[in-house]
Amino acid sequence: MKDLQTSDLPFYRPVADECDVFETAHANGLPLLLKGPTGCGKTRFVEHMAARLGLPLHTVACHDDLSAADLIGRYLLKGGETVWVDGPLTRAVREGGICYLDEVVEARKDVTVVLHPLTDDRRRLVMDRTGEELEAPKPFMLVASYNPGYQNILKKLKPSTRQRFISIGFDFPAPEVETPVVMRESRLDEARATALVRLAGKIRALSGMDLEEGVSTRLLIYAATMIARGMAVDRAIEAAIIEPLSDEPDVQQALRDLAAVIYG
Ligand SMILES: Nc1ncnc2c1ncn2[C@@H]1O[C@H](COP(=O)(O)OP(=O)(O)OP(=O)(O)O)[C@@H](O)[C@H]1O
Fold it and tell me: How far is the CA of 259 from the centre of ligand 1 (A)?
C-alpha cells in the first residue's frame, strides 16, 4: 500500500482503504461511523484525515450525561450579561470543520434528535434555544465512533441512527502494520516491538477467558515505551498489559504464561 504519510500530519499508517473511504465520504457530504475496539487507532485516523484535508477538528468524548446543549451551546452568564456560547458541534458547523463524537452511543437520547437532521440530506443543525437553523457548509463532516464489542445491551445505536452513516469497521492492525506503529510511537527496536506484537496476537486469540477485549495497540505502545526507557520487559508487560487487562488472578496468570511462551 502507498504510504501517504507526510511529516507534518499526525502519524497514521493506513490499514486498508480507509483513507479513500473517508475522503469520498467527505467530498460527498456523508457522515462517517468508525466501529471498533478501544485503542485501535480510530481517533488518530480522524486527526490524520482532518489535518490532511486542512479542516479544523472538534473532538467530543461522549458520556452518559452528555446532552444536546453540550454539543450545540448554551446561554452563560458573563460579567452580569447573558451571552450565547456555541458548543463544539455548532462551532464545527459554522467553521465547516469536522466534529468527531467519540463513543457516540454513550450520549443522551436528545443528542440523537440533533444528529438526525444533520446526518441526512437536510444537513441542518436545529438550535432550538436560539431559534437558529444552520445549514452545514459543504466541508462540514460529522464523524462518530462506537465500540460494538462492549456488551451493553441497553446502549445500542438505533438503526435509524446507524443507517445515516457510512461505516468503517476497525480492528487491531495486522502485525505488519502494528509493529512499525509500535516502533514509531515508542522508539523501541524492531526485535522487541515484534515480540510485543506477537504477545498481543496470542492474547487477542484467547477465547473463553474473562477478558472483555483484547490488548489494545495503545497498551502495546505503553509497554514498548517503558521497555525503550530501560524497564525490564516482564515488569513493563505486567504494568502496561496484564494489570490494565484484568483484575482476576487466574486471568492474570494465564497472561503471564502466554508472555513466558514468547519470552522464554
Ligand atoms: N494505524 C495506525 N497508525 C498510527 N498509529 C496508530 C495506528 N493504530 C493505532 N495507533 C496508535 O494507537 C494509539 C491508540 O489509538 P487511538 O487513540 O486512535 O484509539 P481509538 O481507537 O480512538 O480508541 P478509543 O476508542 O479508546 O478512543 C494511538 O495513539 C496511536 O499511537
Answer: 23
pTM (two decimals): 0.92
The pLDDT tens digits for 75-102 are 999 889 999 999 999 999 999 999 999 9
Q: What share of the chain is helix, strand, coil (3-state, %, to 5)?
A: 45, 15, 40
Q: Does any ligand 1 atom lie closer than 6 A to the CB of residue 42?
A: yes
- Contact between 149 and 171 (Cβ < 8 Å): no
Q: Could you tell me if the CB of 112 is within 6 A of ligand 1? A: no
Where is average pLDDT lowest: 60-69, 195-204, 207-216?
Answer: 207-216
Pick the CATH number of 6-169 from 3.20.20.70, 3.90.550.10, 3.50.50.60, 3.40.50.300: 3.40.50.300
* Structure-block grid coordinates of residue 139: 466541508
Nearest to 250 by CA among 190, 206, 220: 206
SS3 at position 76 = strand
The domain segmentation of the chain, as residue ranges, is 6-169, 175-263
Q: Please indicate whether residue 217, judged by its CB atom, sits closer than 6 Å to ligand 1.
A: yes
Task: Please count the other Cβ atoms lying within 10 Å of the Cβ belonging to residue 132.
Answer: 13
Which of 181, 215, 216, 221 best tests ligand 1's pocket when mutated (most atoms within 8 Å of CB)?
Answer: 181
Residue type for position 51: A
pLDDT in tens, 201-238: 999 998 666 777 889 999 999 999 999 999 999 999 99
> For atom 30 of ligand 1, which residue has the closest CA?
41
